[in-house]
Amino acid sequence: MKKKYIKYTNFLDRFPFIPIIIILILSLILLFAFKNKFPFNFFSATQQQEVESESEYTVFITSPSNNEIFSFINKNETIPVEIKAKEVENLNYKLVVLVNETEEIKTFSTPPYEFNWNPNEAGEYEITANLLDEDDNVISASNKVTFLVEYEEETDESTVISMDVEEKKINALSNVQYRTQNGEPLFSYKCYVPPSIDGSMSEWEFFEKFSSFNPTIKKENYSSHTDVSGIFYSCWDDNNFYFAIQVIDDVFNQSFTGNQINKGDSITLVFDTELEEDIQIPFRNSDDFQIDFSPGTFSGIYAESFISWPTGGPAKDAVMASTRLSNGYILEASIPWYNFVNYSPQDEDVLGFTVSIFDTDNLESTELVISSSTKFEINNISTLGTLVLIDAGDIQQEEETTEPSEEE
C-alpha cells in the first residue's frame, strides 16, 4: 500500500515572476545611481560638447556664438546677448558685461541675463562677463566670445537728379523751419505719368527710395532688419499722393479692419500740412492727417485704408493694391488730395511727415513700430520728420530717353 504524500508549495512557487521583477527594479536603481555619478553624454555629441564647455565656467556666454558674423543693413540693428550663471543665488552679486575688456555695456543684479546690444559700428568685438561680489571683486569670469559686425553699403539705384533739382531741394528747405532733429527729409518728385496701382514695384525706380527706418514704438523688441524692414517710394501730381512700400517681415499677421488696422501688420502715414505754423505744437489739429493702410489678408480681406485723424473712415476714392511675398508684402496706393482738407500741393512744399511700419508677428497687438523719423509717437506731431514735394520735370521720360540702346 502506497503512502500518500502531501505536496507543499511555497509563495515563490506560486508566483515565480516576482524574483524577476525584484531583480529588474534593483538593476534600474543601480543604473540610475551609476548614471548620476557618470553621465552618459555619449548619447548626444552636442550635449556632451555643451556640458564640457559650460562646466569650465560659472558664468557662460551662450549668445552670440564664437566667431559669429552679423551682416546688418542699418545701425539700429542689435546683437542678442544671453548669459548663463550657475548657482548664483546671492542677491548681492552682480553680473557685468564687457566689450573689448574695458567697455561696460550692461550690469545685472538678478537673472535672466539677456539683452540686445547695439554695436553701432562695424568691426571685430570681444565680449566677456564677470560675476562680482558686493565689494566688486571678480568671483568668476566667463568665456570670451569674438564676433564680427558688418554693415552692407546701400547703393542708391534711384534716378540721377540734375544740379538744378538739388538746388531746388536746398532752396525749399532753406526757406522754412523743419524738425532737423527728427531725421533727414524725404523727397517726393512730381510724376507726369501716374504709376499703375497694381502691387508691383516695377515703376518706382525713377523716384527716390527710403530704407533707413528707425525703431520708434516698443523699440526694445527690435533686433535686426530680418525681423522687419522696408523700402519706401513716393510721388505726387495735382490730383493724388502716391506711394509704394515693400515690407520685409519674417512673420505676417493681419486680421483687423477699419479703425483697428494698426493692431496688425500695417502702414501708417502722418502728414502735417502746415508745418511751420505747428513747429512748436505737439498736439494734433485740423491740418494734421493720419491714414492707416492694411495690405489685407490675401485671402478674403482686401487692402484698405482708414483715416484715423481727423475724420475717421476710409480715405475717399483711395486706390490700393497689395502683393504677398515669401518674406513680407508690397503695398501700393494713391490718395486723392481732397482727403487733405484745405490743402493743395505746390512745388517745393515742405510738410511734416512720417511713414511707419507696424509689426505684430504672432501677438494680438503691435509688437514693434519702425519709422522714417528717428522718433515717433502716434499723437505727438512734434515727432514727425519732413517731406519735400519737388517738381523735377518729367524724370520718367528723361530716364527712358537717356538709356543707351542695345546697338550702342
Overall CATH class of the largest domain? Mainly Beta
CATH architecture of the largest domain: Sandwich
CATH topology of the largest domain: Immunoglobulin-like
Count of all domains: 2
State the total count of DSSP E strands.
22
Low-confidence stretches: 39-55, 155-159, 401-408
| Overall helicity | 10-25%
Helix and strand sequence = HHHEEEEEEEEEHEEEEEEEEEEEEEH
Spatial gap, N to C terminus: 131 Å
Give the overall silhouette: elongated
Main beta sheet strand tally, sense and closure: 13 strands, mixed
Structural class: mainly beta
- Beta-strand fraction estimate: 25-35%
Total helices: the number is: 5
- Determine Rg (CA atoms, Å): 32 Å
Average per-residue pLDDT, rounded, comes to 84
